[in-house]
Each structure stands twice: as C-alpha cells, then as structure tokens.
Amino acid sequence: MLDSLFRKKPLAKILKDVESNESHGAGGLQKVLGVRDLTALGIAAVIGAGIFSTIGQAAYDGGPGVIFLFIITAVTCGFTAMCYAEFASRVPVAGSAYTYSYVTFGEIAAWVIGWALILEYAIGNVVVSISWSSYFANLLEGVGLHLPAWLSTDPTTAMNSYEEAIAAGTSTEGLAWTTAPVIAGFRFICNLPAAIIIILITMLAYVGIKESRSSANFMVGLKLVVLAIIVLIGIFYIDADNWSPFLPNSFTGVLKGVSAVFFAYIGFDAISTTAEECANPQRDLPRGMIYSLIICTIIYVIVTLVITGMVNYSEFNNVADPLAYVFEKINLGKVGFFISVSAVIAATSVLLVFQIGQPRIWMSMSRDGLLPKRFSKIHPKYQTPAFSTIVTGFIVAIPSLFVESALMTDLTSIGTLFAFVLVCGGVLMLPREENTAGKKFNLPYINSQWIVPILFIVFLYGFRERIINSATNINHESHQEILFLIFIVLATVITIASFIKKLSLIPVLGMLCCLYLMIEIPARSWGVFFGWMAFGLVIYFSYGYWRSKLSTEKV
User: Fold this and answer.
1) Structure confidence by residue, pLDDT tens digits, 29-87
2) SS (H, E, C) 178-209
3) How far is CA 371 from CA 87, 208, 516, in A?
4) Peptide bond preceding 245: is omega within 30 degrees of 0, i.e. cis?
C-alpha cells in the first residue's frame, strides 16, 4: 500500500494524455493566452483585496517599515515563482502545484496539495468576496442607496458588533443583529452582495477564457491607472515626520503582518493553472509569473510609503479601507469614493482569476481518476471545464453568505505556503537532464553547499535569544514558539542536505522562506488546517485511492 500511495505519474504520460485529449470528453481548451494576458492575470490576482484592505492593519503593526515585509514576501514568492516557472516549462499542462507534485512526490502528496489549493483559491475567494461586499455597500451609500445591515454582513460579525456596543454602552440602533428579521427563532443575517458577485463571476468564467481574459485585462488597466492617480495625488500630502520612527515596533511588529501581507500576494501562481490555454506555455508562463510579481511588489511598496506618509501608522488600527481612509483624513472625500470604485473593480478581478484557477485543478485531478469524471468534462461550446466551474461557484458563494473572513485569511495563507514548499521541494527532485529539449526557461543552478549553512548560522545568531528562551521554557511556551522550534529542526535538516547533496540554492531558499512564513501565522489556524487536511484524506481513501488511473492501469 505504501508504494501505491507514492506512485508517480510519468511526465511523458501527462503530456501524451493532453495531446490526445483522451480525458477531455469534448475537445481541448482554447490556446489564446500570451505573455501580456498572463502578466495581466497575475496582476489581477495580486493587486486586489490586499492593497485595498489588509495593507492597513499590516501598516499599523509594523509602521512604515512594513515595506520590508512586502519585499521579504516578494523575494519568497520570487524563489517560488522561479520553481513554478521550471515546472511550467517542463510540464506545460493545467493543474499547477497538484500536477507538479504528482510528477515528483507521488499520488498522496498530489492529493494533499490539490486539497490545500482549495484553501488558496476557493476559500481565498470567500475572503475577497466579503471585502468586495464591504466596498460595494460603501459605494451604494455614496450614491444615496442603503443596503440593510443584515444583508451585508455575516452572523458572527453582526453578533460581535452588537456585544461590543452593549459592552461600550453605545446605541445598538441600526445594527444588523437588532434589525435582522427573525425566522423560526433565528436571526436571518447574510452577506448577499458577496454571494451575488461570486455567481456573476462564475457565469463569466463558465462562458469562456476569451471573455475572462478581456475582462481581466480591462480591470487590470483600470486599477493601475487608479493606483497611479492615488500616488500622484498622495505624494503632495506626505509628511516625512509620519515615517519616524520607521520601525516603531521593531521587526517583531513587522512580522505580525505576515498573514495579511502574504495574503496580498496570493494568486500569482494561479497563472500556472491556465497552461493548456497558453499559445506558448513554456516561454510565456515563466515570464508572466515573474513580470507580474515584480510589478506588484513595486506597486505595494510605493503605495505603502505614500499612505504611511500621509497618515501616521498608528491610525490604521482596524481600518478596513485604508486607501479611502487616508484621503478622508485630508478632506478629499471624493477621492475616497473614487478609490472605493476602484477597490470594487480590483476585488472583482481577483475573484475572476481564482474562479478560473480552481476548476482547472479539479479538472486535472479528475483526469487522474482522483475525482469523478464529470469534473474533467469540457463544455462543447464554451470550451471550459463547465461542471467544475459550477461546483466552484457553489463552494465559494454559499460560505460567503455566512462566514467571517479573519480565520479564512490565515487558512488561505497556510494552504498556499504549503503548496509553495512542495513546489520548491519538487524542483529539487526533478532530474535536470530530463526533457530539456525545446525548453524556454531553465532554473539557474547555484551550489548551496556553503551559502545555505552560512545563512543558517547567521539566522541562528540573530534569533539566539528566542531559540534559547523557547527551548529552555518549552513546557510553558505558546504554540507559536513550538512552531518556531519545529522550523529550526526542519531548517537544520534542509541545511545538512544542502551541504551533503549540493542542492540548488533557489529552491532551497524558497522552501526555507515559506516554512518560516508559515510558522508566523497564528497557531489557532493550524488546528483548522489539519482538520481540513484530515477531511481531504478521508475523501481520498474513500474514492481517489481506489479510482486512480495509475491504480486501474496497473491492475
């Protein structure tokens, strides 16, 4: 059974299956995407809810120095992007990290990573749809329309707001909890705009990649123009005193924003799910990922410096719309309304990219027999994975009606980082001589034998006090510090392997950076993550293990 769990799908077979369309049922996908389209999809995914919402809390925790966290996260994603690019050049098919893991680690790892990617795409879109709903409600207020509070929030948030008002002795009039209709003894509270936008985006993803591409390109162009206008206006209101101190809470404060900042970068890897819709995937996929990552990092750093220069970092606590907030503070409310419009557009583009990505992963899993065949059926007219797209719409729309976004953000970050670790590790397992003919991208080999040990020693010295305190007081330490010690153990193993086997530097650094970012995510989210993984394994052993094509073909 152990051999069956780690059975690998040969790369040659993957390419042959795609070429023959034996699993498509009705033709293949349209090959219409070029490097500009892929770069636009990457920007569409990354420049979204993060820059219009989570950037505020990150700035409050880390001050202006939070730009260092953006750069660190970008470098981490850069290492991972180059590993994705190597895989995309060798395995130019849909499926993203799921397919890559199937080639290198085997079936059980592929299933786990496919299940984790649901957290990145489907659950991530729940968070983005909730952010979209918040900005949309503000837009309606701006034009004189009022959406009842009980139709634009979730029950948990509504109850918390009510309890906080009671505790503070303030009025509860107009709150969702007090105005919601009571049905069968329960207050009916839901986030209706969040569900509606998911349904509309799903319809767009259903009818074709060309339409999705055109919509994404338009929205990307528009929000880049809006961000440029924000920066050009904002620089005239910068007060350099707001940048002092630059690191008010030291680097510890900067690291508090890991989950929020990393969530802002989630999505650049969604480009790899469209491999079979690229005209030249081996050349264009690597370029699209790397170009979009560079552009987005520059935008994040500039915008963060501008808003922390306009308003002191200490004012961003619990500010859901920081870009609009800073202009309201300088009495430019009309600009704030304009920003709300752009935030709605930005969030819409993120939703579109994720709703495109998730069905294509399920399509790949279905082709391999791990999910029912219907998930891999291609619509004869629209040439999209129709059933998978519809299922994705339901899985995102229904939770967006009722769940709160805080826990979802952490879960999405864990799932994505987990996928990144496996992609970086998978590159190390690829034989470099395999399938090099015709490749358009080669991950440069840099010997890590001495570089990684030196970097690890520097890291140990810099965190020596934390290591000593965590190790000597392990019985009294928080779960967060236990996670930190686990990272030290894993990093030691990776460092020793790098020295002995002379591993390639870029994938090793990608693994180490992603592992470190993972342990900085609140420990409470890890319990839910492991529960989600356990549920996925139940499904695998109930269906996928027995129906896998590798299993049936072997028999």
Assistant:
1) 667 778 888 888 788 777 766 666 667 778 888 888 888 888 888 888 888 888 887 77
2) HHCCEECCEECCCEHHHHHHHHHHHHHHHHCH
3) 23, 23, 33
4) yes
Mean pLDDT of 491-509: 93
* pTM (2 d.p.): 0.78
**C-alpha of 355 from chain center:** 12
What's the chain's length in residues? 555
The answer to whether 296 touches 77, Cβ cutoff 8 Å, is no
Contact assessment for residue 386 and residue 360, using Cβ atoms and an 8 Å cutoff: no
Dist. CA 247–CA 64, nearest whole Å? 7
Distance of CA 315 to the CA centre of its chain: 27
Contacts of residue 142, defined as CB under 8 A and 6 or more positions apart, other chains included, come to 337, 340
- 321-359 burial, b for 16+ CB within 10 Å, e for fewer? bbbbbbbbbeebeebbbbbbbbbbbbbbbbbbbbbbbbb
Q: What is the DSSP letter of 377?
A: P
Instruction: Please provide the DSSP assignment of 277-302 as one string.
Output: GBSSHHHHHHHHHHHHHHHHHHHHHH
Helices 281-310 and 35-46: angle between axes, nearest 10 degrees: 40
> Under a CB-based contact definition with an 8 Å cutoff, are residues 125 and 353 in contact?
no
- 8 Å CB contact between 402 and 155: yes
Domains of the chain in start order, with CATH, are 2-147+196-433 (1.20.1740.10), 155-187 (no CATH)
